[in-house]
Every structure is written in C-alpha cells, then in structure tokens.
Amino acid sequence: MLIRLYLLLLLQILSCFSIETKSKLNFDEFFNYTTFPLLKFSSTGRHLLIHTKRPSWNTNSYENTLWLYDIKNQTKKFITTNLRTSIQPQWSPSGNYIVFLPKNHSSINKQQSEEYIYLYSVHADTVLPIQIGKETPLALTWSNNDSSIYLAVKSIDEENDLWKDVIQYRENIVRKTSIIYRIDFNSNNHSLPVQKSLIRNVSFLINQLLYTPFEEKLIFSSASVVIENLDDFELYFIDLRNISALSKLTNNEIVETALQLSIDGQHLFFLAWHRSSNKKRFNDTQNRLYSINLANGIITRLGEHFDGSIDGYTITSDAKVYILGQLGTEIQIYSQKLSTKDLIHHSGWNGTYESIVSSYNHRSIAFVYSSLEKLMEVYFIDNISQLISAKVITNENYLFTQRNLPKTKVYNWRNADDHRLIEGLLHYPPEKFQSKNLPLLVLIHSGPYAASLNRLNLAWNNWATLAASEGWLVFEPNYRGSTGYGNQFLSEIRAKPLSLPGKDILYGIDQLIKDGIVDPYKLAVGGFSYGGILTNWLITQTKRFNVALSAAGAVDLTSTWGMMDIPELISYLYGGFPWEVPHIYQNETPIYQLDKVRTPTHIVTGENDVRVPTSQSYIFERGLRYLDIPVKLITFPKGGHSLSINPWHGKIKVREELKWLQQYGNQSMSRNKSNNSERHKFTYALQLYMFLFSLVIIKNI
Prior knowledge:
Blueprint: H1 2-16, E1 23-24, H2 27-30, E2 35-41, E3 47-56, E4 61-70, E5 75-80, E6 90-91, E7 97-100, E8 115-121, E9 126-133, E10 136-142, E11 148-154, H3 160-163, H4 169-174, E12 178-184, E13 195-202, E14 205-212, E15 217-223, E16 235-239, E17 246-248, E18 254-261, E19 267-274, E20 288-293, E21 299-302, E22 309-315, E23 320-327, E24 330-337, E25 344-346, E26 352-358, E27 365-371, E28 374-381, E29 391-392, H5 398-401, E30 403-404, E31 408-414, E32 421-427, E33 438-444, H6 464-469, E34 473-478, H7 487-491, H8 499-514, E35 518-528, H9 530-541, E36 547-551, H10 557-563, H11 567-573, H12 582-587, E37 601-606, H13 614-626, E38 631-636, H14 647-664, H15 669-700
Parallel strand pairs: 1-30, 33-34, 33-35, 35-36, 36-37, 37-38
Antiparallel strand pairs: 2-3, 3-4, 4-5, 6-7, 7-8, 8-9, 10-11, 11-12, 12-13, 14-15, 15-16, 16-17, 18-19, 19-20, 20-21, 22-23, 23-24, 24-25, 26-27, 27-28, 28-29, 31-32, 32-34
Helix pairs in contact: 1-15, 10-11
C-alpha cells in the first residue's frame, strides 16, 4: 500500500515537469539571427538562388552568402561569401550562370584599383572573374544570351586633379553621371579576351538596369545622392538600334523601385514610393504597384482598390501578378490577373510574407515568411493552392525554435482628441502573457512611413523580443503616419509631424494603464530614426517616463532639413520650407521645449549619418548636459544611419541601452535573476525530498 502511495506521489510530481521547458533567449543568441535579403529562380525553374546574411563577429562584418538550392533534389550548395550587396546577383537567360559583384577580388590586395564582376557556372561549379575597369559599378543586366552583359558605372570625376581635395558642394551633388557599357565574353572559352563597348553616357546616376528584347531596349531608373527634387527619380529607356536617343518613360513625383519585366518583355512593372513635394502634384500615399506598356507608354495601377501598402510582387507565366500587401500588422499574399482589377487574397498563415518569387516555366513559388511566433525561413510551394502547407527549405534559425520567446497580441485604443482608432503590438515577457501591472517599454518604429509588423526580424533596431525576454512589456504603436491603415491615416501627420503621433502614443499608454496592464510608475520610451525623433519629442511633453533611449534622433528639424540627404521628407511633413511655416517648425521641434525634459536619456548615433545628421545627437547631449539631466552619448566610427557595417556596433548599442534601462528604469533585472535562482532552489529541494523519501520507503520495505 505504501509503495502504491509512493508511486502515485512520484507520478504526480513528475507530471508537473513532464512538459519540456525552453530556456529564455539570451543576449548573445539574439544577435545571431539570419535573414534572407534575396531569392531568385533560374529561368528553367530548376534552381533557386538564396542569399543569407548573418553577423561575422571575428571579422567585424556581416557575412553575405550565396546558396544554390536544387528544387528537384532538395539540396543546397554553397557558392560564395565574397559578395558585394550593392548590386543584386542575376541569373543568365539560360539559367546556366549567375553574375555577381565580389566584395574583394584579391584577399591579399583589398585596395585594388580595378573592378571585377564574377561569373558562376552552375554546371562546372566554378567562378570566372571578369575585369571591367576602374569605374564603380552601379547596375547590370544580362542581354538576350549568356555571353554579354550591360553594365552601368559611375563616371570618374576628371576635375579631381584640378581641385585636389577641395569639394564644390553643389557641383559634387549634381555632377554625378553614368556610363553604360556592353561587356562581351565567351563563357565557354575563358582564355578569349573580354570586349568592352561603350553604349552611351547619361547625365545622372543609374539605380537599376534592365534589358528587354522587345524593340531592343535598355530600361533604367535614375537616382540622386540627395533627395531634394523628386524629378531626379524617373524611368528612361535607350533604343539599342539608335543609342543617340534617350527617352523618358515617367514624369512624376514618385521614386520608382523594384523594376521587373513581364515574361514577353512588353510591360515594365515597378513599385512606387510616393513622396510628395511642395509642388503639390501628388498626395502622399502608401506604396503602390504600376505597369507601363512599353509599346504605347500607358501606365496602369495594379491593386487599385487595395487600401493598404504594397511591399513586393512577382510576375507569373500565366499573366498574373502576386502582390505582397500590408494591412495593419500583417503582410499577406494577393493576386491579380492583368486583364482584371479584382484582387484575390490567398489564405495562408498570419504573419509577414516577403521576397516572393515565382518560376517562369512552372507555377512554383518561393518566399520568406515569419511571424512573432515563427522564425524567419525560406519556403517553397508548387502552386499557390499549397500556401497553407508550404514546405520550409532552410533551417538557419533553428536555435530560436528551442527558446521560450515572448507571446504577443494586437492592442487597440483611441486618440481621445479625434477618436481615431490606433493599433499596436504588445510583447509580453515569457510566462507572463496577459499579466497585469507590468513595467512598460515603448519602442517606436522608424519612418514615419513604416509599421511594426507581425514579423520576427531580430536586430539592433528591432529588439522588442529581447527587451520582453528581459522582463519588459514592450509596446510598439503604429501611430498616425504608419503604413497599412489607408492613405488618409498616412497623410494626417502632415503639419503635425510630432504632436499628432505623439498624442496617439500617449493615449495608448493611458489606455494600457487604465486596463491595468502597465505599472504607471515604470515607463520607458525609445526608438530609432523617426522613432528617435518622437522619443525626443515625447520627453518634452511629459515627465512620466523614467528613462529614454534615443537612437539617430533629431532635435532641431530646421537644421536637420538643411543637412540631411532627404530634405524633401521634412519639408512635406512640416507643410513647407522653414521660412514658409516657421511656426510649425518651432512648435513641432524638441529643441525649443528642451527645458521641460526631466528624463535620463541615452543617445546613440553613427559617425557618418547623413539621414539624421550626427550633429543632432551632439546638440541634444549638450542641451541635456546644461540642464543637468543624466545623459550619455555614444558614437559609432564609420557608422551611417543603419549601423550596417559592423555587427558589434548594433550589439553594443543594445547592450548599453539595456544597462541604461536597468540603471534608471525602475525595472531591476536582478529580480528576474532572483526569481530564476529561487526556481532553481525549489527544484533542487524537491529533488532532494524525493531522494530522501525514496530512502525511507526502501528502508520500510
């Protein structure tokens, strides 16, 4: 009888531990996430090119790797890590070769003056280097065969010798020209010389280049180093039968990106990034998709009745286009036949689909997918009807499936002033889903034309998962100006670029407190880029935050307009130039209300940031120092706006921000450690009790 009681007790105790518990995601693990910047099918549909990106800590850089996935055999082959990411790799017309730019041609002399392109043979598994000259490559595209490539390069400034190291500012911006060459080679006989023929010069930088056999055209998009005039961003073509003529395909206030040709080469598709100027020719809208009939120049909008933002697309062989459309926090797959205006939603998983590609010769589709509950990987389906049962073909982020990640949910509230419904995401600490009275960290997305999504992309500028794992309830608000909620929601931010989204966020915090979810005495706020600007603004409007984290955030929007590389954005958001609406610039700028700040603030910036000028962080730090507010500023050498050169920079940024939260956020990180310690002590005591109890039972037997 006693043995039965013992066994029953033992089974009850073991049942408490029968569910496998996953360990918490730690700091170092968080930064070892892999992303997939590019997918491309070969023309035959037999292979899928996969580009992966992950940190390389030993080399202080990111490792960009190309892989060749065999669709039939379901195998993956390594191609190279010597990859420059400024130009995407391109499949040859036959699908037998891939052309790409090497990061370094020589491992010995990394400062070589000559530029190269590499030709990878799928069948021979070899790489052929092709010397292309000293000019910097801008874009490339294959011709209609495997033996020639069209290449756009940046012209070498011939006035360098005259001016030495002296810079003529305006001339340095506008005097950016490109040269288009045709590179001919024998892919079957590498010993034969390479021929380089001049096509023509153009008086602007080329961003993307395409060749179509339809009427023998080269199509390209223009670009500019500084976005001051949206007329600098247009689409052009050259008739290769008469290269003296340069023809314009567009004339609008749109930045055209992601150019693709239809299967027959008669239509050009592109994503439109609408950013209206003060010329008022267009209103600001979310991203849209268009096509141009190259025969008659007629432009058609696709997904015309879709109320969200279009983030990507792919063209199929059966006169259809698959569209990645964002509504709210989700990016889903839609399709539209080119002969109709109806948009069909294809039911899949909740979350974010991206980098979608389709095979020209088959109905197969590949894409990258993730959600806040599912890790980012590459998936493959034979046709769209299999979307709900898509097969994962990579396993780069397996480690994270073994970690206890935070649970999330969508949260809604209203702005009490105009009763606008606002949406955001809540990330709960592990094992505390739906808990109450939690310490809050508000992480504000950049943009403003962006959104926090149901997407798992673990990074230095998207670290809600890590913050939640450290015990914070993380609140990501999709404030006014965010994409995915309609064009009016997006445009309402104009002339109120900080005060309106600021109130959206503050009313969200009020509602969280009212619902009992958040401890009102443990509030923190932070953000990057526009999220950093809003952070700087919010701490001038309220003293409720215990701590602030400002990353690449501006405090004086007048000087920001004068120094940044996209001044068109500021003049549109503020309703005009500083001399036209000075009252808006003054009322919607943190620097003029800095004396209201009482929040200890951590500031980070890249040394070479031209998007939000580095000087803004120095101004902010100096102002808070004069006001005796606890402040710390760290800068990253050679770092730009995105801290994309050295992964250690992003890791150190978040490390120091967590320290600042621990110091000033009234959220003791030692509490979690203490809880873990108590849990371990309980487990040990229980095990000891079971052992001693067993000895007693055995003795009585």
